[in-house]
């Protein structure tokens, strides 16, 4: 089956190893199959659900675009654009917002986490954020959506919204119900400081994550300081349920080296943590440092990046306009 792939990444700075291993690495793999049509979006509309400095936002949009390219996305093969350049996303979100139910959105755990204790002060945008995400996906008839595990609930909601729209407007199969593509293992990379929290751009401690633009010394330092425990390196048969930090580091090694967890455990059985950490740092330096260097190089030519986004937006707009026009007709506009 030919797949239509859509995914998005927020331009909030500090793209990290979680974004790379949970999502972007997969984007690149999907692009390599010529039968797939891939659309990758820098979701700047999503990012303003929390306060952004306008100048920084523009730069972060470029930086996320640069990270896409540096990781191997190719604008000749995939459509790469920023969300605000295609107005159908906002229009689609409004229509779908009128189909979505408050109860559905109230169950979203990411809103609860992001809004924190004082929900009254969270933006309305943050609350309806998953509806915009549904519009992103449904406008392009995406069949598959590669994301990290933290986006699973939003994708389930997207499926519900598509089905409700089709029912409400008597338009069977008009909105295509997409499938999530979530890695089977290590689809949630955890913080280096606490194996129970996900690695996140919003964690105040920079030592909780490896950023794609970290330099060699910083990578070595962060891995050296990464939390482990006092037990020896686990063997192949050891269960790591109660050792989340160790499991996370082994998982990072496994994802980056494309070896399964058992192989990684066997390789390091009986060795000490410091030698494992040295190996992990070397692997990160080998895989991540070149991406960071490329991001920095690409950022020197803003015009080139802006041009890629502009061309991508033209292609995306062509597709999205057709769909939103049909959608409006169904609604009665
Ligand atoms: P965002 O910008 O928070 O994250 C981008 C992608 O990175 C994944 N990710 C992780 N994966 C594994 N471990 C982690 N610690 C980790 N942290 C982040 C996310 O799952 C995501 O795939 N709402 C989305 C963006 C979005 C979108 C869309 C995605 C907007 N519209 C349509 C798919 C389709 C978000 O905020 O991702």
What does this structure look like?
- The protein has 333 residues and is mainly alpha-helical.
- It folds into two domains: 4-187 and 302-331, HUPs (Rossmann fold); 206-297, Tyrosyl-Transfer RNA Synthetase.
- Helix content is 54%, strand content 7%.
- It has helices spanning 17-31, 44-47, 54-71, 88-99, 102-106, 109-115, 124-138, 152-168, 216-225, 244-257, 261-268, 273-287, 289-299, 302-331; strands spanning 4-9, 37-42, 78-82, 144-146, 179-181.
- The strands form two sheets. A three-stranded parallel β-sheet has the order 1-2-3. Strands 4-5 form a two-stranded parallel sheet.
CATH fold naming of the largest domain = Rossmann fold
Q: Approximately how much helix is present in the residues?
A: 40-55%
Bound ligand species: tryptophanyl-5'AMP
**Total number of β-strand segments?**
5
Low-confidence parts, pLDDT < 50 over ≥5 residues? none
Overall geometry comes to globular
Question: Which homologous superfamily in CATH is the superfamily of the largest domain?
Answer: HUPs
């Amino acid at each position: 089956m030919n797949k239509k792939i859509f995914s998005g990444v927020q331009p909030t700075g500090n793209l990290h190893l979680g974004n790379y291993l949970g999502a972007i690495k997969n984007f690149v793999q999907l692009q390599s199959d010529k039968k797939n049509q891939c659309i990758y979006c820098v979701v700047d509309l999503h990012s303003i659900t929390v306060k952004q400095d306008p100048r920084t936002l523009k730069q972060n949009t470029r930086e996320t675009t640069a990270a896409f390219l540096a990781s191997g996305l190719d604008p000749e093969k995939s459509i790469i654009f920023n969300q605000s350049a295609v107005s159908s996303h906002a229009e689609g979100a409004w229509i779908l917002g009128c189909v979505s139910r408050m109860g559905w959105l109230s169950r979203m755990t990411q809103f609860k986490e992001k809004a924190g204790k004082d929900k009254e002060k969270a933006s309305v945008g943050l609350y309806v954020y998953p509806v915009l995400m549904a519009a992103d996906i449904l406008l392009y008839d995406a069949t598959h959506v590669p994301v990290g595990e933290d986006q699973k609930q939003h994708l389930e909601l997207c499926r519900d919204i598509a089905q409700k729209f089709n029912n409400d407007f008597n338009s069977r199969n008009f909105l295509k119900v997409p499938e999530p593509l979530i890695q089977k293992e290590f689809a949630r990379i955890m913080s280096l400081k606490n194996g129970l929290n996900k690695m996140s751009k919003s964690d105040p401690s920079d030592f909780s994550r490896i950023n794609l633009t970290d330099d060699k010394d910083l990578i070595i330092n962060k891995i050296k300081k990464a939390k482990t425990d006092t037990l020896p390196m686990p063997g192949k048969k050891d269960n790591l349920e109660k050792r989340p930090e160790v499991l996370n580091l082994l998982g990072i090694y496994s994802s980056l080296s494309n070896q399964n967890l058992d192989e990684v455990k066997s390789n390091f059985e009986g060795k000490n943590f410091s030698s494992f950490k040295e190996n992990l740092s070397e692997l990160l330096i080998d895989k991540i440092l070149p991406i960071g260097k490329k991001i920095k190089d690409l950022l020197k030519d803003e015009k080139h990046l802006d041009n890629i986004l502009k061309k991508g937006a033209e292609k995306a707009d062509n597709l999205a306009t057709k769909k939103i026009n049909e959608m409006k007709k169904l609604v009665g506009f």
